[in-house]
Design a protein that fits this description.
alpha+beta, 15 strands, Aminopeptidase, single chain, 354 residues, 2 domains, 34% strand
């Protein structure tokens, strides 16, 4: 890559692992969670299942003052394989947080990324949106946040007497549980439910069925290799897979990747073998039942997708709490289908870099 030249600044591809220390130090200063940064560098940039990812560094006066990353993310749409890349970990040193350095780094990422891939996408924070728009990315609605209360008492008016709140909350929880239990009983004999610490070989076959059945969505690869890497145990993330299988053949009908954080269970990913609001709702109801049994207060999922998926969330009692909670940016290389910007994207937490 030819260096991007400007007065006192330049952008170049990071040399890993030689420059790992400078990158981790900048991330820690700009993004926080210093204890996670070496692990993130190793996991996402050195052990990516699609090959070593790319980091771009912004230099000033011999110092690394900015960084952003690109990780390969294969996608499919209408039977066509798309060579995508996920952008992440954008950070600029606090002494260089003016428009020019950030814009220069984002434009370099755009140039470098589209030189390597057919499309770039990412989920920047709200403060970065003006910069990425100016750099040339499209800004799309991205993912909304959906949630269901599992302990109604916690959400009743605090001014109510505690005994009243406890009684009303218990009645509401019982009524909701009974309503959703009927949906669980309908599938009790046909489908087998299990909680897994990691994916197994059946997930490859599920991915092949899902990829074909959900072909009208832009869908990121979710095969066994990806899922093993994406949901491997980490110091700050521990995900379990709720799997639905045919009681006779043991082939998978779908899964939900669930993580407990504080008093909430978050569904980080969900995939079913065919477009089915009923299957999606079943997975979410089963996750809610497990969360209730563990005394958790809520079930949530951040996602975007086709109408049947959103109908499944509603049927399981999850309601949209925040539209556009996670905006998405997109850039397309020449030759990549332009309608992708208007297409239905199937997005969950598995499509992000955290």
């Amino acid at each position: 890559m030819a260096e991007v030249q400007a007065p006192d600044y330049r952008v170049e591809i990071a040399r890993l692992p030689e420059q790992a220390g400078s990158i981790v130090e900048l991330w820690s200063q700009a993004l926080g969670y210093a204890e996670r940064r070496p692990l993130k560098l190793d996991w996402f940039y050195l052990r990516h299942p699609e090959g070593q990812s790319c980091l771009l560094l912004l230099h000033h006066g011999g110092q690394v003052v900015g960084v952003t990353g690109l990780g390969s993310r294969p996608l499919s749409w209408h039977g066509r394989e798309l060579d995508g890349a996920l952008m992440g970990d954008f950070a600029v040193d606090s002494h260089h947080r003016t428009l020019f350095p950030a814009l220069m780094l984002q434009r370099a990422a755009l140039e470098q990324g589209l030189g390597r891939h057919g499309l770039l996408y990412g989920f920047p924070n709200a403060k970065s949106l003006p910069v990425v728009r100016r750099a040339g990315y499209q800004v799309l609605p991205g993912m909304g946040r959906y949630a269901r209360a599992l302990r109604s008492e916690a959400y009743l008016p605090p001014a109510w007497p505690q005994g009243m709140r406890r009684a009303v909350g218990a009645m509401a929880d019982t009524a909701l549980s009974l309503r959703h239990a009927a949906g669980l009983r309908r599938h009790a004999r046909a489908l087998q439910v299990s909680w897994l610490d990691g994916p197994d070989e059946r997930f490859d076959a599920l991915w092949e069925r899902s990829r074909k059945a959900l072909g009208d969505c832009v869908l990121g690869r979710r095969d066994l290799a990806f899922l093993r890497w994406r949901f491997e145990p980490r110091a700050w993330h521990r995900t379990r897979l709720l799997a639905l299988a045919d009681a006779g053949t043991q082939s998978l009908a779908g899964y939900a990747a669930c993580e407990i954080e504080g008093t909430a269970m978050h569904v980080r990913d969900l995939l079913v073998e065919r477009p089915s609001a009923e299957l999606a709702a079943l997975l979410l109801r089963l996750a809610a039942r497990q969360a209730q049994a563990q005394g958790l207060r809520s079930l949530s999922m951040q996602c975007a997708g086709p109408p049947w998926l959103l109908a499944g969330l509603r049927a399981a009692g999850l309601r949209l709490r925040e539209a556009g909670a996670q905006p998405m940016i997109l850039a397309l290389a020449a030759g990549t289908p332009a309608p992708l910007a208007q297409a239905c994207w199937y997005l969950t937490g598995a499509d992000s870099d955290e």
